[in-house]
Amino acid sequence: MDLLSPMHIIVLLVVALLIFGPKRLPEIGSGLGKSIREFKQSMNSQVQEPKAPQPTEYPVQAVTKEPEPPQEQ
Known about the structure:
- It is built from one helix and no strands.
- It is mainly α.
- The longest helix is centred in the middle third of the chain and has 40 residues, at 6-45.
């Protein structure tokens, strides 16, 4: 389902032309383009989520268990 079909875009452009006039429309378009470009740049320059630290591999040591003393019954 298209949100904006070509007919919708044409109607929006005609309405904008009638409201703002032919002199202001290019100024509004360039201002909108600049603001979108700045928004994209700010989104790209944000600090990205820190990556989880990689686990350091340590040598595995054998666990020795001392023998239990015999229990008296």
